[in-house]
Amino acid sequence: MKAGIALVTVGVLGGTLTLLKKNSESEQKTLHLYVWTDYIDKEIIKEFEKKFNVKVSEENFPSNEVMISKLKAGGGGFDVIVPSDYMIATMKQDNLLLKLPVDKITTLSQLSEKFRKVTYDPNHEYVVPYMWGTTGFAYNSNKLKNPPKSWKEFFDVRHIQEANKRISLLDDPREVLGAGLKANGFSLNSSKAEELQKAKQSILSLKPLVSRFDTMSYKDLLASGDLWVAHAYSGDIVKMQTKNPELRYVIPDDGATLWVDNLAIPTGAPNPELAAEFINFVTTPEINQRIALSIHYATTNEKARQMLPASELQNASIYPPKEVEARLELFGDLGAAAELVDTTWAEIRAENEPSAPTQPAQPPSAQR
User: Cβ-count burial of 162 within 10 angstroms (0-12 exposed, 13-18 middle, 19+ buried)?
Assistant: First the structure.
């Protein structure tokens, strides 16, 4: 009988422990993160999960436009998002962002001077600047003998003919049209119909040579040699140079995009307090410098920047010198004129789409 009672007791205890474990797992919160791919080091995510006893569920988006469309449609249930500078005004206007609980975010005072009063959210009511970088183009120096130095040359079919069907453009309307505008000597924020038309024609003239519009996997194809020239984000190429040292990143002579990505909490976030803890965690100098060193984008946090090695700080592809930075331009909110940009982009994409691209041998790790 004693043995029988003992077995029953063990069984009951085992069942109780199992139940307690299941209850504990069910009570564990999940932070839902919507972010550019490979933009936060996985080890940092694990450390956050351990410190706060939570799970992080990450979903990636290929462009700001895709991100905002999903939010407007009511999808996702995200806690933290990473929108770029030019989207913030529209998102505030459409009530897509919660005000930040600034009492929980202690790192705002550590921002570098130029990020303390950003035009799109000067008082940091809605966003915390996270990382910044540039958009130019990259090429394989082993494949391309006469690489372009400007957007004008990039879109000149005669100049770039040798890379026929080895060229990619980003799948991003503002970036592609911005490059086309720069090639014609205009601001990348132009919304004038005649200037957008010239940019469109430049892009369409190059399109027969383009193998893909791609924000997600172009860097892997560039590193493998399947692509020779690519419209590219700065950090992507610095990271890929470790795989292929023949890659070169160019900030074009006629100007390029300077962008700032921001951490924000969307309206309807299931766990806004946990979201604030996450934003504070990844912008803490010690953590932030590790992220910057991992993804090779420039940090907005001055203390984190001071912790970086000289090799990172002296890399002009990450931190361009002042004379280069002078020809960079931030995207601005276009307001109602954004509709014309969207229409022009749709016309570009609809006309003679490139054939199906070659797929990389390994799954792509995607972009910023």
Answer: middle
DSSP character string of 218-253 = HHHHHHHTS-SEEEEEHHHHHHHTTT-TTEEEE--T
Q: If DSSP codes are grouped into helix, strand and coil, which group holds residue 36? A: coil
Q: What is the mean predicted confidence (pLDDT) over 297-311?
A: 98
State which residues form the domain around 270. 30-131+259-313
Q: What is the pTM of this model?
A: 0.86
Comparing C-alpha atoms, which of 111, 113, 142 is closest to residue 127? 111
Q: Are residues 246 and 138 in the same domain?
A: yes
Q: How many domains does the structure of the chain reveal?
A: 2
pLDDT of residue 352: 65
Are residue 161 and residue 243 in the same domain, yes or no? yes
Give me the amino acid identity at 216: M
Bridge partners of 81, per DSSP, are 34, 264
Q: Longest C-alpha distance within the chain, in Å?
A: 94
Cα–Cα separations (whole angstroms), residue 315 to 128, 293, 336, 365: 25, 12, 38, 22
